[in-house]
Amino acid sequence: MVIRSQAELRRMLEAEQARLKLMLEPDVSWTKENMGYGNHMADDATEAFEQARDLSVRTQLEDTLQDVNHALTKFASGTYGICESCGTKIDWARLEAKPEARLCIKCKQRSSFGR
Fold this sequence. Notes:
Strand content: under 5%
Number of domains: 1
CATH superfamily: DksA, coiled-coil domain
Helix content: 55-70%
Order of helices and strands: HHHH
Low-confidence stretches: none
Structural class: mainly alpha
Radius of gyration: 19 Å
Oligomer: single chain
Largest sheet: none
């Protein structure tokens, strides 16, 4: 899919925001109810593993939603597509691949290697 305008990127971000909000709606599967009350230790271990996995997925979704919200805020302020580290324009191909990107590819690589 070729994205031709920032308006298309904004629509994609808005759609992603709505999708993430829907996925993050309160759900009983995210709670720790009944943990440790199974009939067998293996059942409890499986339940604990599933809850840890679900929490990890939820955390990732929340982080992505935060990035999407930040990108939409940058649209409103007129700074969308500008690297937050060096101030240069983020390459169009990077924005197509990751519309919520905060850094240009060079700054992202530097921040990843600097850890």
